[in-house]
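Thread: Newbie trying to understand structure tokens

Hi all, I'm a second-year student working on a class project, and my supervisor (Dr. K.) asked me to get a predicted structure for one chain before our next meeting. I've only ever worked with sequences, so writing a 3D structure as a token string is new to me. If someone could post the tokens and maybe explain what I'm looking at, I'd be very grateful. Here's the chain:
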Amino acid sequence: MDSHKKELINAYKQRPLTGGVCIIKNTENGKYLLEVKTNPQGSKSRFDFSQATNSCAHFKLKKDWDTFGKDAFVFEILDEIEQKETQTPEEFQSDLAVLGELWSVKFDPALAY
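---
Reply by user tm_fold:
Sure, no problem. This is what the structure looks like when written as tokens:
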């Protein structure tokens, strides 16, 4: 493997880990899917790909995806945090879980998928 490739791989491994709270909303009926994810930008990319190919990536959304169509759904990153250098992966996951709980109280649980 050449040195440039090794540098790219090392830079990727050294990048700060991010996590966040994401929501996929059905604009037709108000239902939503709230998720806590590491790499929320990757989740956004997967959602965009799902819409581009009209292939629902979430089983929970499938019925409404088929009923209302792909354009009825929107993806939003509600909040995002970066892992601190001093945090263990477990501490970071714990912070993400708390962040998810804080956001979940802002939405009507009756409308959750």
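A couple of things are worth pointing out once you decode it. Residues 61 and 67 are 10 Å apart (CA to CA). The helical segments are 3-14, 40-53, 62-68, 89-104. Feel free to ask follow-ups in this thread.
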